[in-house]
Amino acid sequence: MKIAVLGGDGIGPEVTAQAVKVLRALASRGLSFELTECLVGGAAYDQTGHPLPAQTLAAVQRADAVLFGAEGGFQYETLPRGLRPGDALLTLRKALDLFANYRPVVAFRELAGASSFKREVVEGLDLLIVRELTSDLYFGEPRGIVTENGRRVGINTMRYTEDEIARVVRAGFEAARRRQRKLCSVDKANVLESMELWRAVTEEVARDYPDVALTHLYVDAAAMALARNPGQFDVIVTGNLFGDILSDEASMLTGSIGMLPSASVNAQGKGLYEPVHGCAPDIAGKDIANPLGSILSAAMMLRDSAGQPEAAARVEDAVRRVLADGLRTADIHEPGCTLAGTAAMGDAVVAALLDH
Ligand code: IPM
Ligand code: MG
User: Fold this and answer.
1) Which CATH architecture has domain 116-254?
2) Which residue of 244, 251, 273, 279 sits with most ligand 1 atoms within 8 Å of its CB, as the best mutation to test the pocket?
3) Which of 153, 173, 325, 330 registers the highest number of CB atoms within 10 A of its CB?
4) Sign for the pseudo-dihedral over CA of 105, 110, 111, 112
5) Is 57 helix (H, G, I), strand (E, B) or coil?
């Protein structure tokens, strides 16, 4: 299996290095990977003048899966669009047509006290957000900042074709079938026509899934329900922008955004795996970032792109055991636990993996 490793910027390279350690540990036990490290984001811009060099795009296209870190940094925020690090990720998502973004939100029992939510609200939580990733306000045209009558106007377009809606909603139904058979579609059909279509198409697709219980929520009510009673959700399917916002909110249920993995997959099953967190420039290079989101992303890659569900479960189990042993990075640290740096956390997961 060919994996392109794109560490990127900020804490991206350090957390990705821990996930790579885990993959190498598995390789020492018989799995075989070909890892190719590529430049992306600000790091690529600094060295090549472009956040997504042609060489990186080619390597990604050759690969079976992509392990992505994070990209960005304050110093790049004023670059022209197209040259900003975040544009590389958006281009990759679009170029590979990674329309289905899976963001599992699992609250580890050991971390219930690290969440700002009450223990009884988050304990045992296990939900999945399926976010559309290649359309919506993120890519809709027209867009831009134009001048009208001497004043600036900022424009973005929320736009969805029925096929774009149908394929991601179908991914949501399929995911629900593998879980508790409950799907909640989140839209804003009361105000936005694009979302009115979302709801109509969702109802049409639902005819093929009579065994899955479908509900609908407006995004504002969904934001409230996630905070009030997240246990009611099994799978949530939603658009690109709403999914972006709701997944950050949902991450707080688990204690830290540093815990959340994600998979972005296209129709051919090729996937890009990345932690949900960003590049966190304020803590970059200090060996304090939580690598578990990246390590758990590698586990998703093993399950979804490598066809290695057992290896994936072993990695997840190793993470669970390290947490049960009381090891914590700063973001999830509580009194009585042992504080670990990024690399030490990675080493501990590798040790737990190998000793099993
Ligand atoms: C995410 C991130 C990205 C997004 C940014 C970095 C472009 O927030 O993956 O959730 O908005 O999709
Ligand atoms: Mg986001």
Assistant:
1) 3-Layer(aba) Sandwich (3.40)
2) 244
3) 173
4) positive
5) helix
Domain ranges of the chain: 1-104+257-356, 116-254
Q: Report strand pairing: 151-155 vs 144-148.
A: antiparallel
Length of the chain: 356
Backbone angles phi, psi at 31, to 5 degrees: -75, 150
Tokens 């969805």, residue located = 160
Name which of 27, 25, 50, 29 is nearest 40 in CA terms.
50
Of 89, 135, 276, best ligand 1 pocket probe by most atoms within 8 Å of the beta carbon: 89
Nearest CA residue ID for atom 10, ligand 1:
244
Atom of ligand 1 nearest to the CA of 101: 9
What is residue 351's three-state secondary structure?
A: helix
In the predicted model, residues of the chain with pLDDT beneath 70 are none
C-alpha of residue 64 to centroid of ligand 1, in Å: 22
pTM confidence score: 0.95
User: 146 CA distance to ligand 2 centroid (A)?
Assistant: 26
Q: Which of 158, 259, 244, 173 is closest to 211 using CA atoms?
A: 173
Backbone angles phi, psi at 317, to 5 degrees: -65, -40
What is the 244 CA–ligand 2 centroid distance (Å)?
Answer: 4
Cα–Cα dist 240/95, whole Å: 16
Ligand 1 atom closest to residue 278's alpha carbon, by position in its atom list: 6
Say which residue the tokens 């919506």 belong to: 136
Domain covering 1-104+257-356, topology = Isopropylmalate Dehydrogenase (3.40.718)
116-254 and 1-104+257-356 share a CATH fold:
yes
